Amino acid sequence: MDQLNLGIGTRLQHTQHGPGVIVGIRYATYLISFIHHGIKEIDKNDTHLEEIIPENVTEEIETHSDVEKSLLKILRLWGGFSEIVPLGDRWKGGNMILQPADKTQKGKEVPIDVFFHKIVMLRDRLRVLEQQINAHKQLSDEDKVNLQQYITRIYGSLTTFNVLFRNKEQWFIGEKGATAD
Question: Model confidence over 101-141: pLDDT tens digits?
């Protein structure tokens, strides 16, 4: 398929990398930002590349809120921007108490909002690590996939803390909740 006429913002599907959007154009290649694989340079005539043409799309398909969420997600993933993540209302002002089994030892009390902030920072740092793995030039695709699987398992281990988040879309999602390419 001759794709020399595609522009920035064109949505594409690649059989190996999944869905993506053209973010840059070079003489013989496209820079494509893939949802699960980061930015890749792909030959314009790659036979594994297909344009996604949405059906019944009007200019008003995305609301301003949807656009804002998309921009925040892009900034967070690629710009080191940290979003404000709200703590669930029932936890505000609460404390987490860690009590040892041995009653002669003193327990530890931590404000939930401090603990929650540490969880959110951990999530943000995992996302930056994920971004750096995807963009690493010396790792093979197999190495990247193997490291991504470890990160997915880490997210799965952290799903216990989803109860603290106000918004479900900000939850940790492990292997069972991940979508396949």
Answer: 998 999 999 998 888 888 888 888 888 888 888 888 898 98
**31 in Cβ contact with 41 (< 8 Å):** yes
Q: Where are the domains of the chain?
A: 10-51, 65-170
Angle at 167 between CA 57 and CA 158, to 5 degrees: 115
pLDDT, residue 100, reads 92
Residues 6+ apart with CB under 8 A from 39: 23, 31, 32, 33, 134, 135
pLDDT digits (tens, 9 = 90+) for 164-180: 888 888 777 876 655 54
Q: The whole model's pTM is what? A: 0.47
The CATH class for the domain spanning 10-51 reads mainly beta
For strands 18-25 and 29-34, give the pairing.
antiparallel
CA 149 from centroid of its chain's CA atoms: 14
Distance CA 35, CA 72 (A): 15
By C-alpha distance, which of 10, 36, 46 is closest to 25? 10
Looking at the chain, list the stretches that DSSP marks H as alpha helix, in order from N- to C-terminal side: 64-79, 112-135, 141-157
